[in-house]
């Protein structure tokens, strides 16, 4: 079992591949919805921030969490999924 911890600002996603290729699970607290949109599974905490949050409001694929529409993240995630769908391949 391997692991790595870093702040979002210092995070280099290329460092994740060896961990994932070795069969490890990567758990990240991520706010960039472009990254969340391509995750295998998402756990959305909420429904708000601070004392108004902390409960699991949705869990599943990014599309499922976006469709649930419970937490504040759902709308942002839905937009990120739509943008990824409309992106032109390079």
Automatic annotation (TrEMBL):
Compartments it resides in: Cytoplasm
Major localisation: cytoplasm
Alphabetical keyword list: ATP-binding, Cytoplasm, DNA damage, DNA excision, DNA repair, DNA-binding, Excision nuclease, Nucleotide-binding, Repeat
The protein's name: UvrABC system protein A
Keyword DNA-binding carried by entry: yes
Gene3D superfamilies, A to Z: P-loop containing nucleotide triphosphate hydrolases
InterPro entries found in the cross-reference section: P-loop_NTPase
Organism, as annotated: Dermacoccus barathri
Keyword Transit peptide: no
Family: Belongs to the ABC transporter superfamily. UvrA family.
């Amino acid at each position: 079992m391997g692991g790595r911890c870093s702040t979002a600002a210092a995070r280099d996603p290329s460092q994740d591949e060896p961990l994932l290729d070795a069969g490890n699970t990567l758990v990240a607290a991520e706010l960039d919805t472009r990254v969340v949109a391509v995750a295998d599974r998402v756990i959305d905490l909420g429904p708000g921030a601070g004392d108004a949050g902390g409960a699991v409001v949705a869990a599943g694929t990014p599309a499922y969490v976006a469709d649930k529409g419970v937490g504040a993240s759902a709308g942002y995630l839905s937009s990120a999924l739509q943008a990824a769908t409309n992106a032109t391949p390079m």
